[in-house]
Amino acid sequence: MEILYQTAVHLGDPYLFLAAAAGVAWGILGGAMPGISPSIAMALLLPFTYTMEPTGAIVLLASTYVGAEYGGSIPAILIRTPGTNAAAATVIDGYEMNKQGKAGLALGISLYSGVLGSLFGLMMLMLLSKPLASVALAFTPPAYFALGILGLSVIATLSGESLLKGFVAALLGLMIATIGTDPVTGSNRFTFGSSDLLTGIAPVLIMVGMFAMSELLVQASDRSEGIKVLSRPRMEFPGRKLAKRLAFPQAIGASIGTFEGVMPGAGGTIASFMSYNEARRWSRHKDEFGKGSPEGIAAPETANNAVAETALVPLLSFGIPGSNSTAILLGGFLIHGLVPGPMLFTRSADVVYGLYAGLFIAALSLLAIGMLMLPVCIWLVNRPRPYLSAFIFALILSGIYSIHASLFDLAIMLVAGTVGFFMRMLRIPFLPAVLGLVLGYLVESSFRRSLVVSGDDMSIFFTDKVSLALLVVAFLFVAGSVGKRILDAVRHRPSAKYSEGSE
Amino acid sequence: MLSRDFVSGLAAVLIGAVYLVFAYQLRTSALDDSVGPGGLPRTYGWLLLTLGLLIAAGALIKQIRSGTALDLKLEWKGQGRRIVWAGGLLAIGICYIAGVSTLGYPLAIALLLAAVALYQGARPGLHIAAIGIGGAAFLWAVFVLVLGVSMPMGLFAFL
Fold it and tell me: A500: pLDDT confidence band, cut at 50, 70 and 90?
């Protein structure tokens, strides 16, 4: 009840309203552009948030995530090209409906299901985050170390085809985190006499470089024109009868989306496809699936929007980002000196309640902004790629410079982009590198402080019950992933394809 | 022909080795804790080196077993061209960084917009100049006028 009251207090804040609406609009545009994932749309905004008030900045980023999940369905339905990975399941029936002249209805179902998914996801986020965080309040330094290890163990689920490559990426992130001042003694490490490196490398530079810049570098060789949207559909919402029929697949999508969102590493793509399959399994109109079933749009779109909210549960409660987008959001928190995790609810409760309020506004405004933005999205999708690339590059360079007014930052970002480009080429996932970077400080400082407290007795990590429990969960994460890969190999089933991390 | 996995393993070994060289040069002090500033970096370095060797060895064994030289050629097909194109875009970025202080943000960003658009395949013409100038004006308005960022002025110091 207190959560509801505190959230309601923030609802009247016009600044939050603006941030949520701007985030949703930007997210829809980003999501609608094939090649611009929700995380890239968020990464492009990250430098702008430096000058913003913390709550507004976090709301802006989180709302972008919400908007992008819907935006991805627009090209999925209109040109059979999912704007985001999570919209891939929407292509199946969405494009079929488009071919039958029902593009407006397909878009309406996508938008309306997205709003329902967002609202349900938000409800679950509000219900789950605080109780989980209060458990974490009793954490000691060994428990924090174990929490960092648990966060890093998420790599096991995010490493695509090779777990070893995932660990390599995580180690690269951990190594970057060691640059700058030592967290315990205060001495300089790997600074090579440069004053620019004394404070370390800001995660935002690596995030924007690896997510956005590397994507531009990958697209640099692409000379294809891209498919144009030739139709001009008008948004149409389902009538009462159809809405009733869609309620069950939406419930399936909301449940699966919640579960997958809370599980670090699962993400919207898995949730969408699982929801699609389950909706088909339980449908009375199974035959329509794949031929333009409205249920085939409702389930995945509800699921991926529910994920956009519930993916914040592990981030807010434990400080563990389980996806690319939540890693960028974590970057947003860190920029403002906020550390997600158990202490966030006591030290910066206002930001958390402001975020809930902002997400509520975002979910509702998605309906209106989604309708208004449709022609803009179609216009944008039809723009020639060279101009978009040029503008995005200029935006990245200007945004990064604006953080510290430093050309050195631009160079670091370009280096990170180049590293990200080669990591993609060598099929090394880069989300583990970002996880390593953001968790590096926590892991090292907690590890060393624990040893100082215990008098260099390593058994402290196993005698502390919370630490032990978290380490066991981390072990199970890795063991489960390894087990699945062995099983896949034995059954000659291809293991998960290379993924750049879930959205 | 080397597989991508083998190359990624070698790259990890190389990075790990270079990192270790510098990690072992970190000074220790009598006031340090038992792990010290170099403790974890050295662990990370050795781990990366070991993982790199494992990946490279695994890739080599796989390659010897299957002996699919043709597949490896296909695996790298078009990658050289991609690197060259990416290198060109990167060079434009480096030129921007090198020139922005002298030219000033408005001119440098306009040139960047035009250069990237042309590089990415836009047809040359007056519209490119319009996009460069219009885009630069828009970004100037957003960053300097709205956000109050102090961009390098260079030739435009009079503004």
Answer: very low
Same domain? B18 vs B57: yes
CA distance B19 to chain A (A): 8
In this structure, what token pair is assigned to residue A407? Answer: 């050309």
Q: Which domain holds residue B122?
A: 79-156
Do B58 and B87 lie in one domain? The reply is no
Out of B22, B54, B75, pick the residue that ends a domain. Answer: B75
Asked if the interface predicted TM-score (ipTM) of this complex is over 0.85, the answer is yes
Express as a percent the part of chain A with pLDDT over 90: 33
Pair (B85, B150) in one structural domain: yes
Same domain for B63 and B90, yes or no, is no
Per-domain boundaries in chain A: 2-490
**Alpha helix positions (H), chain B:** 4-23, 36-66, 69-75, 79-103, 105-119, 126-140
List phi, psi (to 5°) of B48: -65, -40
User: Alpha-carbon distance A501 to A431, whole Å?
Assistant: 6
Interface contact A175-B35, CB threshold 8 A: no
Tell which of B33, B52, B75 closes a domain.
Answer: B75
Torsion sign (Cα): A34, A38, A40, A46:
positive
Q: Are residues B35 and B87 in the same domain?
A: no
Q: Mutate which of B10, B13, B21, B82 to disrupt the A interface (most A C-beta within 10 Å)?
A: B82
Residue B91 shares a structural domain with residue B135: yes
Q: How far apart are CA A102 and CA A30, in angstroms?
A: 24
- Confirm if A452 and B31 have CB atoms less than 8 A apart: no
Q: How far apart are CA A55 and CA A319, in angstroms?
A: 17
Nearest residue, CB atoms, A216 vs list B22, B89, B101: B89
Cα gap A312→A147, rounded to integer Å = 16
- The pair of structure tokens assigned to B32 is 């340090």
Confidence of residue B159 (pLDDT cuts 50, 70, 90): low
* Total structural domains within chain B: 2
Alpha helices per DSSP H over A266-406 = 267-282, 295-310, 312-318, 324-335, 344-347, 349-381, 385-404
pLDDT of residue A199: 85
pLDDT digits (tens, 9 = 90+) for B116-142: 999 988 889 899 999 999 999 999 998
Least confident residue range of A93-97, A497-501, B151-155: A497-501
Q: Are residues B47 and B99 in the same domain?
A: no
Q: How far is B81 from chain A (nearest CA, A)?
A: 7
What are the angstrom distances between the C-alpha of B137 and each of A162, A379, A392, B111, B118? Answer: 46, 22, 15, 12, 19
Q: Are residues B135 and B112 part of one domain? A: yes
| E strand or H helix that includes residue B153 | none
